Records
---
Amino acid sequence: MMSCSLLRPFTLLVPMVLAVSCGGGSSGSGSHGALPEPGAVASMGATHEPTILVKAGEKIQDAVDRAVEGDVIGIEPGIYHETVLVETSNITLVGMVQDGRRPVLDGTRIERGEAGKIELRPDAVQARSCDNIVVEGLRMVHYQGNGVVVNDCNGVVLRDLVADKVGLYGLYPIGCRNILIEGCVVSRCSDAGIYVGQSDGAVVRNNECFANVAGLEIENSSHAVVVNNSCHHNTAGILVFVLPNLQVKKGEDTVVRGNRVWANNLPNWGAKGSVVGQVPHGSGVIIIAADRTHVIGNEIWDNDSFGIATMSLGDMNLPGELDVEPHSDGSRIENNLYAGNGTRPHERLGVQKIPVGLDLIWNGQGQGNCWLEPSAKSFPPELPRCK
């Protein structure tokens, strides 16, 4: 887990930012200022006395299959070539980290034919239609789908996980409620390192995301708090999106607070034709069609295209008709620290005649958006001021 002072480029910080980044205090006005606490979710799996022990050479899935509600499955260090499926509520999977070694889920599968073809399993861990699930202490590598994917669960804790080159998404709760993702490191995912989709109530804190297309994404979700994360050397740092043609048609009341977002200049290697594949490299934070997003007290620097962009779905090349309201409304962007953004913008911005060196971009659409960033360079030069 990262310290409060990790990799800060500024020698003088506003006291408010320090309080926010370390998880204490509050600032800002209106309902945006309050940080919802994860509550009981944070204590799930906090006591890890294993009731079932998996040793190196054994199968994690065998332990999951015989587990009952309330079991804690302890996994000793070793390499496990499998996909683990959890469909029982109140289960904890905890990697037992010993002398810096942790259990590794490795998706590599070698076909024993003449060619010895190497294939990758789909996901490392799948959990579906179950409640109060904890996954902690694992390292995951070499999958083609995702690291941890959790579908339709209430009460999800993903803690102290390392996911590297696991496919599209590193940590992927979708259609869930009451989520806590903390202390994880996610890298080299071809969509988003950490993705919260079509969910309600999430706290994403103290994580590091790098070398992904998008570091961290909140999509068609409400009441999410993204706090004290480091998102760097991705194509884009943090995305807050509402996209069409999904079951959930809105995304509201996300707080992006006290994060460090820097040097997100990796060329976009996302799938052609995908939404994330259109994101310009050099993007710090992007808000598209989400409502009442509050971006406050973050440090945003050295992103080649811009620091924060507030946009609409019309700015993207999406096929078909939109079934969601396309504009970002009620965004509040204030008291962030900026340095060195927009110095080498993506060619798409040049075509739109957007000037160089921008911290803030707004397409001029949407209602009730406001900024309180007196020292930031913006396009347009005058932005509605927060009261």
---
Amino acid sequence: MTCAERFNLEGRVALVTGAGSGLGRQFAETLAKAGATVVLAARRRNKLEETAQSIADKGGKAICVDLDVTDSASVRDCFAEAESSAGIADILVNNSGISREGFLVDLSEEDWDAVIDTNLKGVFLVAQAAARAMIKAEKPGSIINIASVLGFRVAKMLSSYIAAKSGVVNLTKTMALEWARYGIRVNAIAPGYFLTEINEHFFKTDAAKQMLVQIPMLHLSPQTAMKQLLSLLMASLSHLGIFAPVTPTVDECTAEYVLGVHFAGPLASFTDCDRSRADTTTPSSSEKM
């Protein structure tokens, strides 16, 4: 198989949440360029249409579907519409995310719930819907959850975001363990510091300037850096589990700033016992669906 063939997604259907802007738009355009039909899903329809137009201008195929990842009914309707219009999605990029800043003693329950519901519950609901569809159709596929370096470390004023992204890291490992038997690969990308709509206001502050001085490159990573990583995860060789390491083998701080990513791969949480159980355990009736 040639390199081009490994990265060819012709005939595949990819659903990207939060595809209206930022990394979500980058991911959607990357998948469309590789030949996939891309389902763009988010709450802001006008932003989705901008992404769809950008993809169409480059000769790609995309459809827009309304989605609130915190609402199970909305998730169900999104997948039904996507399947009707494009077919069963065998690629999912779980990208939707928000942030709320505040010290723990000041953080409101409303803000806490908004972040946890979007960044953690939303990942669960959307991935579950995607896996159920693939399992029912006996169709292998790939799920990529977008975590964060803050899923591996702490910072002030971002407690709800950190709690959610930490949850995404271990949820990804559990998904990978349970769904490997169905041919569904599950990975997580944990980006470092990129300029997005979520954090653009922060990077205009003095605190951000002080943080940038600590980064060896002295600047933020470009959003385009994630394109290559996404393509690699979509390649036919990614089933080999080459993205397993969660903790870098070099100095952790340097790895986060220079590489900008951590990986949570399909074998990241497997012990020998886990591998044996994953290979031999017979799915329950509920798992068979």
---
Amino acid sequence: MTITVEAVQKIFKKMYDNGDIYKGTYVGKYCTPCESFWTESQLVDGKCPDCGREVKDAEEEAYFFRLSKYADRVQHLLEDTDFLQPRSRVNEMVKNFIDPGLEDCASAVPASPGACRGLRSRPRGLCVGGRPVQLLHGAGLRQRPLQRL
């Protein structure tokens, strides 16, 4: 199945209009060489867990997916279905993510304004409701559940 840019734009805009995606700011420790954000608890001896280099305090504008709104549904999916295998991981997921409060996660960052100008050599990102947006891939989401200001 091929997902078109237009389909992604439509889905993102609908989620934004419904309040499931909102613009905010996240803060954290940033490793410049790895281009990754980390929380304090992820650091190893105060350094990047991937490369071992120094990190710096940083913040960045982002679009967040309101995952917290769906905490009850996620908990039901984990506890009352066979969605997560092996079952031994269910308690771990509930204890580490649901019980402390499921956090919203960054799903996109503002992109180059060229994404909304219809440039032939398409810049990274796409235009959603007149806003240039660059979607984050799964690996980016893993590193971006940081505090909102």
---
Amino acid sequence: MSITPELVAKDDEGWYGKILSHYYLTVGRQYLIDRDSRQIRAIAHHNKNRLWLPDFNRSLLSTSLRLLETLIIGLLKPGVEYRGSDPNLQLIAELALANKRELKTFLGLTIVESDTPIKIAQKLLSLLGLKLTYLGRLGSREQRERVYVFELCNDGREEIFASWLQRDSAFTPVESTIDIYSVSTIGKDNNLSHGADIEIEPEKNKIIQPGTIVEWLKAKGTWIVEATTGIVAKIKDKCGKEALVNCQELKCCQS
């Protein structure tokens, strides 16, 4: 891909780092660990195996993208409309506020108590150079709300992604069948960190939505899904007990 003045201007605004995160969060996800492994080897070689922790942490993407992915991977679905009252956005806001220290440390993102769910979603998406587009105030007169939609970004990043995918596949002979906006492969338990990747079954993940009746592999009885980020779900049992769980631990009940 040729370097144009427009690309240089975008890079001066931090665009490269944003689309790099977007790439490794989606279409290049399977190459993320290999990418960080190469970074570690390069740093160790350059510093004669002596690593300064701040530089080491800044050079790796795995930790920050695990955190970001847990929160927003479910938002990267073109054409879906969002309102501040949506349960899934409420869950994202709840998790972001509960982990605002980690968001500041690993992503440089400041979340404050006064931020609305929509504002929090916009802040998180901005880390990828993306945003929710405002459609207008919709609904009945008594229940009118601001409505937003996530749309595909037509800024040339897909051409760059294709180039990066070709480069990464040359480093690691893994066949890529992942769509840019497909669900990712990182799991989640009751906090926003996870030590190992978990393969997600795309069809299963699509089914688990608010209102779905499920069984939780770690507890007896049935639960109802109140909200989900696509990786984390908030569930409630018949007695009103709530839990934050990994979506991989849930099984949909037969209707």
